[in-house]
């Protein structure tokens, strides 16, 4: 995770299914006429679904009652998330409760995988895509000591990753790994073509050492690469902006599209990288550089060319966009990304993000007190942590929980503002 100058294992659930699902008495959402008796020992857990945050016991209760709907849901949302979303009848998350598939993207909380390109986590990037995760992260290097857009964690000069540069789905898991960003995007497109109705995926790119515009690795070059490799699989800033003058105006007025409208799409998030942020000679970080790029494209009537959303990086109270002295950049930020421990610690009013329909990515979710294992927590611990942070208004909770696909594919309601 958190740097410069100058293609349906995880398909979105429930598409084309009818309403009227009966969970047999779990939660307040079931109508009295359709409730079935609650087995002994389960009744006590039901009332807790009228409040946030939800506990692992809450999810377990609903999961036991959800057997009659699982056949119509794809793996992408997971049994627990589906049941939880359907039973919530009022209060925060009610939009998700009415129909999880048709709920706004910004009203749900999913789970992401930190550095999903690492071979120790997934043999191939296609496996990461198959995991059902709501977010997958790539680290990208651009310095002139190496070629192209390199994808690796600690090697700034070469590629060290699970990407193959597959030309089509038949080549996935068959080719040499350690490809550049173009190769990773090729794998994503090949997987997408084989799973055209897949869940929306946030593709988070940490620009380790920032952009290098003078050497063919600037914002416009990234847009061109994203367009060439992902094409119509991208959900672009222009798609969110519509007829509005900027992203902030658009999201405040209309919010994010529903999850079914985002089926088959990738949303690309950009954050500044650790090297970039630690470089005293670098005064133009990824966030500001790409936001200025968006503003310029919009002014020229060319916003459609942009392929990514810059994120305000690191948790901060109030409106963290005020850090940008150039006030004209602020309306181009509707994605925020930072440490979960800070967001959940009480010093930041996270309801502000939910009230304005901003996406909030919380990283290192395992470190929130009480800390749990960053890679191998129990399933109950991971679900409890997801529930806690959904109640703190997270859009995505990120950790290294790749051994828990049933958790990665879980989508729950995000607490309202």
UniProtKB/TrEMBL annotation:
Span list, region Disordered: 1-34
PROSITE patterns: PIPLC_X_DOMAIN (PS50007)
Name of the protein: Lipoprotein
Bias (Gly residues): 1-28
GO annotation (BP), single: lipid metabolic process
UniProt xrefs under Pfam families: PI-PLC-C1
CDD domains: PI-PLCc_SaPLC1_like
GO molecular function: phosphoric diester hydrolase activity
């Amino acid at each position: 995770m958190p740097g410069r100058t100058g293609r349906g294992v995880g398909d979105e659930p429930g598409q084309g299914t009818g309403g009227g699902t009966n969970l047999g008495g779990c939660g307040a959402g079931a109508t009295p006429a359709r409730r079935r008796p609650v087995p002994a020992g389960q009744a006590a857990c039901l009332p807790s679904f009228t409040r946030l945050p939800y506990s692992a016991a809450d999810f377990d209760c609903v999961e036991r009652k959800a057997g009659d709907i699982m056949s119509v849901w794809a793996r992408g949302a997971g049994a627990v998330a589906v049941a939880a979303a359907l039973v919530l009848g009022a209060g925060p998350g009610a939009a998700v409760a009415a129909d999880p598939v048709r709920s706004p993207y910004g009203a749900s909380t999913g789970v992401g995988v930190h550095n999903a390109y690492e071979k120790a986590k997934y043999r191939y990037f296609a496996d990461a895509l198959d995991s059902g995760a709501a977010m997958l992260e790539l680290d990208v290097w651009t310095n002139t000591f190496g070629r192209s857009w390199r994808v690796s964690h600690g090697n700034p000069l070469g590629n060290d990753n699970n990407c193959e540069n597959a030309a089509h789905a038949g080549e996935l898991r068959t080719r040499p790994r350690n490809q550049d960003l173009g190769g990773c995007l090729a794998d994503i497109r090949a997987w997408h073509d084989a799973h055209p109705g897949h869940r929306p995926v946030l593709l988070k790119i940490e620009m380790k050492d920032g952009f290098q515009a003078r050497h063919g690795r600037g914002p416009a070059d990234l847009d061109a690469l994203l367009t060439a490799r992902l094409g119509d699989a991208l959900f672009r800033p222009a798609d969110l902006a519509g007829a509005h003058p900027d992203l902030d105006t658009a999201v405040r007025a209309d919010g994010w599209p529903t999850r079914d409208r985002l089926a088959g799409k990738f949303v690309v998030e950009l954050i500044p990288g650790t090297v970039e942020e630690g470089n005293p000679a670098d005064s133009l970080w990824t966030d500001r550089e790409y936001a200025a790029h968006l503003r310029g494209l919009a002014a020229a009537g060319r916003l459609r060319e942009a392929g990514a959303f810059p994120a305000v990086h690191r948790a901060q109270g109030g409106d963290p966009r005020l850090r940008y002295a150039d006030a004209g950049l602020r309306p181009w930020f509707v994605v925020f990304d930072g440490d979960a421990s800070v967001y959940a610690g009480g010093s930041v009013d996270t309801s502000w993000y939910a009230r304005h329909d901003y996406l909030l990515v919380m990283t290192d979710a395992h470190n929130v007190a009480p800390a749990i294992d960053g890679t191998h927590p129990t399933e109950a611990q991971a679900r409890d942590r997801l529930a806690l942070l959904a109640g703190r208004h997270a859009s995505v909770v990120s950790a290294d929980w790749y051994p828990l696909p049933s958790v990665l594919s879980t989508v729950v309601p995000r607490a309202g503002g």
